[in-house]
Write a structure and sequence with these properties.
Elements: H1 7-13, H2 16-20, H3 26-50, H4 63-74, H5 76-84, H6 94-116, H7 128-155, H8 160-174, H9 183-203, H10 211-230, H11 237-258
Helix pairs in contact: 3-4, 4-5, 4-7, 5-7, 6-10, 6-11, 7-8, 7-10, 8-9, 9-11
Length: 280
């Protein structure tokens, strides 16, 4: 008789508590995704008019925030509950999450230097402090949607790993411009997006008060590292493949250390009333 998957993996993919909780509100999620994608396209078209350099901040990053904003207008109470998170909360993973970001960049850049003999570094065209602050603001514009709204919604139905993978796929596809690059580049980018989503999903499981700054901090550190050492806008395949592999390794380590570990009640373990209940 064939052996089944380990109990920890089954629990990570779909926990019993998650299955017994409220299903994902499809209409709320569909509205958020529609606004996030459409607003990002409109803001991207507006960027050249503003003359704001893309290396400083990309206006498309505020598409998810606008999606959450519209949800907050239509369903203020439920949106506030989703953003706040549920359960007793926990801490201790935040520092490790923020350390993971520079480690990913260091592994990627180090592997590139070993393979090519080139320690690649890019000098920004704008003051670094300005870029760092702007990147953190832009990352907040994204992460309030991805990790603070969409992830908790999916966690009302799925386990942490499955929800993180789903958010990562959406997050990767949202960067639609990468699909104009070489197929290997696009595939590596998708692998990186899903892997980083898994890292953040495990690290933020059960976190409430500092969910947004932690997710945005990780995101901003990755963006800054790619800007300075990976030259991600060039379309070069090798740096992106190495970056994707480093992200996948990080996701594997986070999953290995998280599966089977006792967890406090997360969003899936506590009932979040359907977001559409605000509409009467």
């Amino acid at each position: 008789m064939a052996a089944g998957p380990p109990d920890g993996i089954v629990d990570a993919m779909r926990s019993k508590d998650a299955m017994q909780s409220e299903p994902v509100d499809i209409r709320a999620m569909a509205l958020f995704l529609a606004v996030a994608f459409l607003a990002a396209g409109a803001l991207g078209a507006l960027q050249p008019v503003t003359r704001i350099p893309g290396e400083v901040i990309q206006l498309t990053q505020f598409g998810p925030a606008l999606g959450v904003g519209l949800a907050a207008v239509l369903w203020p109470g439920r949106t506030r509950e989703v953003l706040a998170g549920r359960g007793p909360g926990r801490s201790g993973q935040g520092v490790l999450l923020l350390v993971t970001a520079p480690l990913i960049i260091a592994v990627s850049a180090g592997a590139y230097a070993v393979l090519t003999g080139d320690v690649h570094a890019t000098r920004p065209g704008a003051p670094f402090l300005l870029i760092a602050v702007a990147q953190l603001i832009g990352a907040c514009g994204e992460e309030i949607g991805w990790r603070c709204f969409l992830q908790p919604l999916l966690r009302t139905r799925f386990g942490p790993l499955a929800a993180s993978v789903a958010v990562g796929v959406v997050w990767g596809v949202w960067h639609v411009q990468v699909f104009a690059q070489h197929p290997a580049y696009a595939a590596a980018f998708m692998m990186a997006a899903v892997s980083m989503s898994v890292v953040m999903g495990w690290a933020l499981e059960g976190v409430r008060a500092f969910r947004l700054p932690l997710a945005a901090g990780f995101h901003a550190l990755i963006n800054l590292g790619m800007l300075l050492f990976m030259d991600e806008e060039s379309g070069a395949v090798l740096p992106m493949v190495l970056f994707g592999a480093a992200c996948l390794a990080a996701a594997g380590l986070w999953t290995w250390t998280s599966v089977g570990r006792p967890r406090t009640a997360g969003p899936a373990a506590v009932r979040i009333p359907p977001i559409m209940d605000d509409v009467r």
